[in-house]
Amino acid sequence: MTEDSAGRLVVTLDLGGVTDKAGLMDRCARDLALPDWFGRNWDALADSLADPSVWPAGAADQGLVLVVEGWRAYAEARPEEWAVAEEIFAEATDRGPGLFVTLGPGGSSKGPADQPG
């Protein structure tokens, strides 16, 4: 974890290799250090993003920037599920000033960089 220029904690949600909802939920639990009781469903993800008490240490005070990387394979494999995930990320950002979710590179960090188009 790092900080951005505004002092917010930056966490990367690495979706490289994820092609289904279960994988997305597992990565969210891992990369966001969500509690064991995280329900691994859409409502639980939305609730967790809205609850600073379950964010990584320090993020509630500093603010949190969540950078979603490696998402393209999931978006292509399950476009309907990815649309729901994007909606949850967008709503989480709109809820208040503490959280900002942004899409980073869509490809795997282990492969070549994404190309436009």
TrEMBL record:
SUPFAM superfamilies referenced in this protein's UniProt entry, alphabetically: Barstar-related
Record-annotated Barstar (barnase inhibitor) domain positions: 10-94
Pfam families, per the entry: Barstar
Domain of life: Bacteria
Record-stated family: Belongs to the barstar family.
Name of this protein: Barstar family protein
Species the sequence originates in: Streptomyces tendae
